[in-house]
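The authors assume throughout that readers already know how a fold can be written as discrete tokens. What matters is that the chain and its backbone geometry are given together, residue for residue. A single example would do more here than another paragraph of explanation. For illustration, here is how one protein appears when written out as sequence plus structure tokens.
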Amino acid sequence: MDSRSCHLSPKTVSFHYLSLPSNLKTPATLFRMATAAAPGRTGPDSLRFGIAGGNSRGIFVMQRSDRQTGELILVQQLRGPQEVSVDVEMSEYVDRSFQAKHVARVHVLVSPYNF
């Protein structure tokens, strides 16, 4: 209970695989990450969305689409065949205090074809 590194570790980790055609028109929304409160319970006061890793070429951006949802946006066309992975995270806060982090690894497989 007193371990800071344990408290800051992701509460959930998920893996997602997307296949895309070569040279997909940009910007394109590829993935959405959101939270929902269980019935009878309040959700977090605040959410922060970001890219945690795998975006060294600046191909993606993460932006908020509403109060509880963040979107991973492809901002540069990808020519296939290639594979790219990006880690996105959502952090929950209550009264400005960190509560939990959720991480999703999105693995994109780009086809050599435009269809």
In short: The longest helix spans residues 4-8. The chain has a mean pLDDT of 91.
